[in-house]
Amino acid sequence: MVAMPASNAALDLLCTHWEVAVDTALKRIESLEQEQRLHEALTVTEEQMDRYPQSICLPLKRAHLLIDLGRHEEAKRVAGHAIKSATMGRRDHRTSTTWEQGQFTRGLAALNAALGIALRELRDPNAAKVVLREALRHDRHDPAVHFQLARVLDVLRRPNEALVHYIDALAETEVRDNTNIRNLVSETLYFLADQERHSSNPLHDLIVAGAVAFAHHDRRAAHAKFSDVRCTSSPIEDAREHRAAQAALKLFWGRLP
């Protein structure tokens, strides 16, 4: 008997099943992470990858766990293999709709970002820069990617170019629903203040001054600087700077997740 091809409805049901299963596994893994049981989380992740090889989320989680454990060479291999597999179409990313295409490209961006972090930690900032720019090609609105690229540019002693991406990292937190936004904004401000930066844009200078005040625990001065940016910038013409200042102010007001 010749096997009949599965109907679209059957394929949709099958994909929905494994997506739910992967989501359940990720919640378990994240619970182990919160309990600082990283080796157990890594073991579970590897088991689930064998079970659901079509997932992009699981190798991404594995790469980040390896980075957290200081196993950067392994993280580099995991992220690189997942990127290659996804790009060659061996993963079922189901890009039949705009939403699915968006999810797939965001996953590729996140994998490239993880690879970029591993390369930076392996002291290969030039390769990290290339990979992180590729991540932005897939998803230019990911604040974490802008943040990681800015850090690499700082390592390469290009602080003014890094400044632009630090500002983008702050700005994109205003339009993107990510977890740990509070930590991302706070870290961005600290790293932004870490090097001397110069800009021909007075709004950028105000943002840097606000970050420096924040890093020195002068919340009142930092609040004043970012308030000045918000009041003197246009939400349309200076959209990035306006959103960046708004993100910093939300941090001070306790309004970030």
Q: How would you explain this protein's 3D organization?
A:
Helix content is 74%, strand content 0%. The radius of gyration is 20 Å and the shape is elongated. The chain is mainly alpha-helical. The protein has 12 helices and no strands. It starts with 7 loop residues before the first helix and ends with a helix.
Question: Briefly, what is this?
Answer:
This protein is mainly α and about 260 residues long. The protein is built from 12 helices and no strands.
How much helical structure, as a percent, in the residues? over 70%
Q: Structural class, judged by helices and strands? A: mainly alpha
Instruction: Say which CATH homologous superfamily of the largest domain is assigned.
Output: Tetratricopeptide repeat domain
Report mean pLDDT, rounded to a whole number: 87
Run of helices and strands: HHHHHHHHHHHH
Give the helix tally: 12
Q: CATH architecture of the largest domain, please? A: Alpha Horseshoe
Supply Rg.
Answer: 20 Å
The total number of structural domains is: 2
Distance between the termini: 56 Å
Q: Which fold name is given in CATH as the topology of the largest domain?
A: Serine Threonine Protein Phosphatase 5, Tetratricopeptide repeat
Major sheet characteristics: none
In terms of topology, how is this protein built?
Layout: H1 8-34, H2 38-51, H3 57-68, H4 72-87, H5 98-121, H6 125-138, H7 143-155, H8 159-172, H9 181-192, H10 202-215, H11 219-232, H12 239-253
Helix pairs in contact: 1-2, 2-3, 3-4, 3-5, 4-5, 5-6, 5-7, 6-7, 7-8, 8-9, 8-12, 10-11, 11-12
